[in-house]
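Standup notes, protein team

Yesterday: finished cleaning the Nonomuraea solani set.
Today: DNA-binding transcriptional regulator, MerR family structure.
Blockers: none.

Input for DNA-binding transcriptional regulator, MerR family:
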Amino acid sequence: MTIQEAARRSGLSAHTLRYYERIGLIHSVGRDGSGHRDYAEEDLQWLEFLLKLRTTGMPIADMCRYAELRRMGDHTATERMHMLELHRERVRSRIAELTQDLKVLDYKIDNYRELM
């Protein structure tokens, strides 16, 4: 599929897709007969995972390291798993912080409701 189609389906801009390719987050995408990028379904699945990492706050440098390890093959699975476990703990900590923040907001809202 074209870069425009991949952008539409992934929710990323074509510029971001090119940037991700340039910094090594995605491998060099195949080219069609005209030399244009030709994304495959597997590319979209990888982009979907990258978006989850980004949404959960993984730094780009860590994402690049993960992508590099992935390209190196199965012998890096343990290191990749360890990276994801560490990131999962950071996400859990952030969820706990947000839960506490939400409790404060709920408390304040309840106070305003009592005044009204």
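Follow-up from PR in the comments: The chain has a mean pLDDT of 95.
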